[in-house]
Amino acid sequence: MRSNGPDYEALMQGHLDALHAEARYRVFQEHDRRAGAFPRSVMQTDAGPREVVVWCSNDYLGMGQNAGVRAAMKAAIDRHGAGAGGTRNISGNHGPVVALERELAALHTKPAALVFGCGWLANQATLSALGRLLPGCVFLSDAQNHASMIEGIRAAGCDKRIFRHNDLRHLEELLRALPRERCKVIAFESVYSMDGDIAPIAGIVELARRYGALTYLDEVHAVGMYGPTGAGIAEAEGLGHAIDIVQGTLAKAYGVIGGYIAASGAMVDAIRSHGGGFIFTTAIPPAVAAGALASVRHLRESGAERAALIERTGRLRGMLDAARIPHLANPSHIVPVMVGDAARAKALSDLLLADHAVYAQPINYPTVPRGTERLRLTATPLHDDAMMEGLVHGLDTCWQALQLPRARGRSCAV
Question: 259-263 and 362-363 as β-strands: parallel, antiparallel, unpaired?
């Protein structure tokens, strides 16, 4: 026992109490996904097991349930064992991760790719290394970039400029004020995960060309789901070749885990050689790489899942409009149902789960600004009409019970 000094437990409890007071304390619901049953899941309650329908998953296409992905992972375990054995610097490469990187490079029509343990690590390690490797580097970062990008830029320790979200005019003002010979990196996302809006990629690419900047595009909420082969929004807009560094994830539409970058051979090799977040972390296991490889290959060939995602999302938005449930208009698959208050968002989530077996976690600060709290819904190809009717009926009933304001008119164009 410490005889004097700060009361560390009390300090931590104070922070927790503050979260509770603001209705921002997050409860992680325990539930068990069952192979072949998604989006159904089983939750253990005092009364016994209870089936719920998950409406907030980032497994956007249900590929975590895909039979080919599961079979590839099982076969890799039997062939290679469970783990990777250490960092790639020390333990070397295993066959599945090499094949996966080749596939990802081909997906994005880039010479090379590099796989990380997760998407956060890919952003943090790559951006921090870029800032150290490029002399006099300045980052131009969208105001709504993900925390992993912000952390990477901060860790780089170099200059940065923040441009207003998706504001090409402001970005150009910042670029114009910098010497053309100075190293510049424009860091932005294609699909922004909370509002579901999409970056003006063509305009950013044009400004990068005009002012001599590199483009760094985070496509984590787009790969697998957009473009003829699932390479993302840049591919869908015919601009994949114009992006210098694309970053993606294997944990969302591809249904597994891991992150990656794809770029030129020299760029990827430099990050491989200098990115601490890559050098000092254990490689993804062979089974994970094999599952991701099967998923990427499947979605490069099959457009059925993408078509179903578009149809399911459009149907859900139409049903929400009919019930006058307010949700943000956007052109993507993300459907933010707007509540605008942390306590009421939590109450809505709890009531949906208790009375309607609908699982949708509330989203609050710091993930979104205060006053914009919401439920972030995603309709996958595996959500059928009955599930949608159950969700919207539950929302309609709970909205009335909590006396939440209805949408005044149509809130989303399909």
Answer: unpaired
